[in-house]
Structures are given as structure tokens and as C-alpha cells.
UniProtKB/TrEMBL annotation:
This is Probable glucan endo-1,3-beta-glucosidase eglC. It is found in: Cell membrane; Secreted, Cell wall. SUPFAM superfamilies: (Trans)glycosidases (SSF51445). Belongs to the glycosyl hydrolase 17 family. Keywords: Carbohydrate metabolism, Cell membrane, Cell wall, Cell wall biogenesis/degradation, Glycoprotein, GPI-anchor, Hydrolase, Lipoprotein, Membrane, Polysaccharide degradation, Secreted, Signal. It catalyses: Hydrolysis of (1->3)-beta-D-glucosidic linkages in (1->3)-beta-D-glucans. Residues 1-19 form the signal peptide. PANTHER family: GLUCAN 1,3-BETA-GLUCOSIDASE, GLUCAN ENDO-1,3-BETA-GLUCOSIDASE EGLC-RELATED. GO terms for biological process: cell wall organization; polysaccharide catabolic process. It holds the Pfam family Glyco_hydro_17. GO terms for molecular function: glucan endo-1,3-beta-D-glucosidase activity. It is a lipid-anchor; GPI-anchor.
Length: 285
């Protein structure tokens, strides 16, 4: 039936266009250092869903720190948000506490709220660990969550420069996805060159990914703070970077923007100010 086929083809092309996830990084701490409460996570998730892009996926950096999963998962479930979970890998005691917090959250709430799990964050960039230790932890966490029926991907987040370093290839072999952090700002790029610098870092990471999915787990442009070479923070530049990178990325790659809120940092990448309002216009792309 011709009509049905046309419809199916249309549906397929539509789902292809929708195949990429757009998310946001959400920090566990308020600017005064206190931990976000469940009510604050709920507000954050509702504000992200109210954006024209209807963001329903967030990345958290840790599981036990600030009781992140215990406090955030109820907010995720009540708002229909999914979490890219972070499991901190250092040191041994911290890693054990992180795994225990993830296990407790799964036991209490099942796993429909999990988008994926990242074991570690920029550990290779910092030179805090070796590729073989980190790869072992990826296998370890995957083994643990699979026992609970969790089928979501288990990967690792690091800077694109760490991924393209062949010393770290054991981690690429271990992961289900490569989460890459890339900031043209920290590469001293002008705002004009920033999209090209960004897409070059994505392409370089894809080239070493052994065919595995590459997600952008952090990128953004500061609204305020110090210049970094030719990189100049400003609200106008942040908005330009959003329009030229985020808006294009939504049809090309999974992306987690940096960051929901960080209004007391220098540089400050936060999109939402202390009153909870978007600092610049995030209209549909
Ligand atoms: C790759 O990583 C190794 C181990 O951390 C480091 O010694 C080396 O300098 C890195 N190579 C480059 C090109 O950054
Ligand atoms: C990245 O790769 C894509 C696909 O091969 C290509 O179209 C694009 O021009 C590349 N971007 C840069 C900045 O190299």
C-alpha cells in the first residue's frame, strides 16, 4: 500500500531528525556551596523543560556527593526527566561510595530514570589515573548495573584531547559511548572561529571512536569572566555560540550544554541567573 509506505518513510525520516538528545549539565551545589534540594532539582528540570527545546535530559557529575542521586532522582521521576549519571572514580573509598549510591537509587527507584552512566569525568585529562585502571572501573560498574537489569549505556566523559591520545585507547575499548568535553573558549578561540574549532574537536574524537557513539557532554561559552587569548566572554558571544553550535548540534549529535546555573564562577557559563531566568534568548533554533 503506497500510502502506508509513504507514511512509514515520513515517520522514519522524522525519527531520524529526532534521533539526537539535547541535554544540560546541572551542578549539585548552589553558589554558596550548599547542596541542591529535591525542590531545587525539580525547579531546574521544570525550567529546562519549559525551554522551546523542551530539554528532558540532564547530566549530573556524581552519585553520592551532595546526595545527588538520592535528592535528584525523585525530581527526575516526577518531571519525566532522565539523568546521565556520574560515578566518581577517585579515590578508592569515594568510588565505593559512588557505586553504593547508584545501587541504592536503582533499588529504590528502578532504572527508567537513567539515560546513561558515565564512569569518571576528565580523569585522564587531569592525569589522575591510568587508562587501564579506568577501563577496569567501566567494566566493573557495567557489571554491577547489568545485575539489576539496567541496559542503558555505560561510558566515560573526558576532554576531546584525552580521547585522541592513543595512550588512552583501552578506555575507548571499554566504553559504550565516548562523552567528550570541548571548549573553544579554553582553546583561545575567537567567537568567530569557535564553531569550526568545536566541530574539528568532534571530528577528531569520532575518528578514534572505534565506531562507538560520541556525545558532547560539555560545551558552552562564558557569559562573563576573563578573556582567554582571543576568547572573550560576553552575553552576546554566549548567545552566538548557542545559536551556531547548540542549534546545529541538535540535528547532528547528542549534546549536553554547559551549564544550567553557575552565576558566581569566573568564567561563568551559566544560562540561568540567580533569579532563575535565562540570561539570553534561547528561542527555538
Ligand atoms: C598522552 O597521555 C600521556 C599519559 O597521560 C602523556 O604523557 C602524553 O603527554 C599525552 N600526549 C599528548 C600528545 O598530549
Ligand atoms: C567534520 O566532519 C563533517 C563530516 O565529515 C564535515 O562535513 C565537516 O566539514 C567537518 N568539520 C570540520 C570543522 O572539520
Amino acid at each position: 500500500m503506497r500510502f502506508t509506505n509513504t507514511l512509514a518513510a515520513f515517520a522514519a525520516s522524522f525519527s531520524l531528525a529526532q534521533a539526537f538528545t539535547s541535554g544540560f549539565n546541572v551542578a549539585a551545589n548552589n553558589p554558596d556551596g550548599s547542596c541542591l534540594t529535591t525542590a531545587q532539582y525539580t525547579t531546574a528540570f521544570q525550567k529546562l523543560q519549559a525551554l522551546p527545546q523542551k530539554i528532558k535530559t540532564v547530566r549530573l557529575y556524581a552519585s553520592s556527593d551532595c546526595n545527588q542521586l538520592a535528592l535528584a532522582v525523585p525530581a527526575a521521576i516526577s518531571t519525566g526527566t532522565q539523568i546521565l549519571v556520574g560515578v566518581w572514580t577517585e579515590d578508592e573509598a569515594h568510588y565505593t561510595a559512588e557505586k553504593a549510591a547508584l545501587q541504592s537509587a536503582i533499588q529504590a527507584h528502578g532504572h527508567s530514570w537513567i539515560y546513561a552512566i558515565s564512569v569518571g569525568s576528565e580523569d585522564l585529562y587531569r592525569g589522575d589515573t591510568t587508562a587501564s585502571t579506568l577501563a577496569g572501573q567501566v567494566y566493573d560498574v557495567r557489571g554491577m548495573v547489568r545485575q539489576y537489569g539496567v541496559t542503558q549505556p555505560v561510558g566515560h566523559v573526558d576532554t576531546w584531547t584525552a580521547w585522541v591520545n592513543s595512550t588512552n585507547s583501552a578506555v575507548i575499548t571499554a566504553v559504550d559511548f565516548l562523552g567528550m568535553d570541548g571548549y573553544p573558549y579554553f582553546q583561545y578561540s575567537s567567537i568567530g572561529d569557535a564553531p569550526s574549532v568545536f566541530w574539528t574537536s568532534v571530528n577528531n574524537t569520532k575518528n578514534v571512536a572505534q565506531g562507538k557513539p560520541v556525545w558532547v557532554t560539555e560545551t558552552g561559552w562564558p557569559v562573563s569572566g576573563s578573556n582567554f587569548g582571543a576568547a572573550v566572554p560576553s552575553i552576546g558571544n554566549a548567545r552566538k555560540y548557542w545559536r551556531e553550535v547548540f542549534c546545529k548540534a541538535t540535528s547532528e549529535i547528542d549534546i549536553f550544554w554547559y551549564v544550567y546555573q553557575d552565576y558566581s564562577s569566573n568564567p561563568s557559563f551559566g544560562i540561568f541567573n540567580s533569579a532563575g531566568n535565562a540570561i539570553y534568548d534561547l528561542k527555538s533554533c
